[in-house]
């Protein structure tokens, strides 16, 4: 009897929890190894962590302005569509569905499985098949919850955000205590220039930015936010500052307890830290870290399903995925679509190769989205925005993102080339299906086998005829 739409259920607290829950996940517990490996020394790795935090703040502020200018949900997709046009937005959607999002979800899922099983197999490493099985079970649980209820997904995100901050505190406090006692030997010769390899720095930034990634999540649920003009900027600024401080202190704690070789040799840095510094919590911290990853999975599914929902509504994705469950008010088809690809990537993927694989595409399109803010300002100078950032913020962010993307071809040409090929493969799809007007027969054939509307209409018609026959038989009886 009521109109079916996504309700405004995301308050300021829930928006803050969504951002904290998306940023503080597997990244801070697995990325220190990648940052250190590609930056070369403790000092340069800390510089990379701070620079990534500052860059994330620039991006978050740019997205906050975009969120007040453009009133639709959808995040990167809708911002690129509204500012740069349908082709780049479809290429983003194509890369996001087939590369970025499943690889990202697979990385977080594998981190969840590894940390959850680590206490049971210590001091040995957990068996890879067991890690992958537990990773998939965790992902399926989050998938089911997001299909069931928006409210419960948001409540879980709020609760897990508290768990994430507690996990960081349990790493920061003992590290700071040891540092205060004078344990500074691991910081000797922190800026060793001989170990710095400039062409590897983009990979260090990818690892660091992965840990901060999530500052853009509020833009995906813009239509479900209460008072978005006020709550988006507030949630973004508070959450990013909180995470920058937490990450810097966490990394200092890691290096206070663990040496460079210990970090590089550890498959799970947080577990190695606890084994060395706080043995009484050896079974607690890995579980807290696993719960942090669980919250990141929840936030990722919650937001990406909205991207598919909006893309369907804009006519660039199958109409089936713009449908909402009548009673539960969840975008059920969009939530379930990622199931097969994430399953495949978890089964065959490795965390660090997946990280480089999806980072190229992600930061390319994020850089284009903030570039779109500059274009949107130029095209619509008359548009009043309740939140506006200085022009150098989006300019700096866009230039750094695109420069890092270009440099990464020298750092990891194989993974980056695969990511680039995935983006470029969307060109023929766009021109054959989205842009070009196909004949009615071809369109119907395509819709029947891939996009489903013709097939679903046919089945619905046949079902209606069957019901009419049954009703007639009942009346006759």
From TrEMBL:
Enumerate the UniProt keywords alphabetically.
Answer: Membrane, Transmembrane, Transmembrane helix
The record's Gene3D superfamilies line, in alphabetical order, gives:
Amino acid/polyamine transporter I
A Gene Ontology molecular function term for this protein is:
L-amino acid transmembrane transporter activity
Whether Cell inner membrane counts among this entry's keywords is no
Name of the protein: XCT protein
Please classify the protein's predominant subcellular localization into one broad category. membrane
State the compartments where it is located.
Answer: Membrane
Q: Where is the signal peptide?
A: none
**Pfam families noted in UniProt:** AA_permease_2
- Please give the start and end residues of each transmembrane region: 12-30, 42-64, 76-100, 120-142, 162-183, 203-221, 233-257, 277-297, 332-354, 360-377, 389-410, 416-434
GO CC terms in record: membrane
Q: How does it sit in the membrane?
A: Multi-pass membrane protein
Taxonomically, which superkingdom?
Eukaryota
């Amino acid at each position: 009897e009521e109109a079916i739409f996504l309700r405004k259920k995301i308050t300021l607290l829930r928006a803050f929890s969504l951002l904290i829950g998306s940023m503080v996940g597997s990244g801070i517990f697995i990325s220190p190894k990648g940052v250190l490996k590609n930056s070369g020394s403790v000092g340069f790795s800390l510089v990379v962590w701070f620079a990534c935090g500052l860059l994330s703040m620039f991006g978050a502020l740019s997205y906050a302005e975009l969120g007040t200018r453009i009133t639709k949900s959808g995040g990167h997709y809708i911002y690129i569509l509204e500012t740069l046009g349908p082709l780049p937005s479809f290429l983003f959607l194509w890369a996001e569905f087939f590369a970025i999002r499943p690889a990202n979800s697979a990385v977080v899922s594998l981190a969840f499985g590894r940390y959850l099983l680590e206490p049971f197999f210590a001091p040995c490493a957990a068996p890879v098949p067991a890690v992958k099985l537990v990773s998939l079970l965790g992902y399926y649980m989050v998938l089911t919850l997001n299909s069931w209820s928006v409210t419960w997904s948001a409540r879980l995100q709020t609760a897990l955000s508290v768990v994430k901050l507690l996990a960081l505190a349990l790493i920061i406090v003992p590290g700071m205590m040891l540092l205060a006692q004078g344990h500074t030997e691991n910081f000797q010769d922190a800026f060793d220039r001989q170990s710095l390899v400039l062409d590897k720095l983009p990979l260090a930034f990818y690892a660091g930015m992965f840990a901060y990634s999530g500052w853009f999540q509020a833009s995906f649920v813009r239509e479900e936010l209460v008072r978005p003009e006020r709550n988006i900027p507030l949630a973004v600024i508070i959450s990013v500052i909180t995470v920058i401080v937490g990450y810097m202190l966490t990394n200092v704690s890691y290096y206070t307890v663990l040496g460079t070789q210990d970090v590089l040799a550890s498959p799970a840095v947080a577990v190695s830290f606890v084994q060395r510094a706080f043995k009484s919590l050896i079974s607690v911290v890995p579980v807290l870290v696993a719960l942090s990853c669980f919250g990141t999975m929840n936030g990722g599914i919650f937001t990406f399903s909205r991207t598919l929902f909006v893309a369907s509504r804009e006519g660039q994705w199958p109409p089936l995925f713009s449908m909402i469950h009548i009673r539960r008010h969840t975008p059920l088809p969009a939530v379930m679509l990622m199931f097969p690809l994430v399953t495949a990537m978890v089964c065959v993927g490795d965390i660090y190769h997946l990280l480089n694989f999806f980072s190229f595409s992600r930061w390319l399109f994020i850089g284009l989205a903030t570039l779109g803010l500059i274009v949107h300002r130029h095209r619509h100078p008359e548009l009043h925005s309740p939140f506006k950032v200085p022009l150098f913020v989006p300019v700096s962010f866009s230039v750094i993102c695109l420069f890092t993307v270009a440099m990464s071809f020298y750092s990891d040409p194989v993974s980056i080339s695969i990511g680039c090929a995935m983006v470029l493969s969307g060109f023929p799809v766009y021109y054959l299906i989205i842009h070009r007007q196909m004949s009615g027969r071809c369109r119907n054939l395509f819709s029947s086998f891939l996009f489903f509307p013709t097939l679903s209409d046919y089945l619905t018609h046949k079902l209606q005829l069957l019901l009419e026959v049954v009703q007639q038989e009942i009346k006759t009886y």
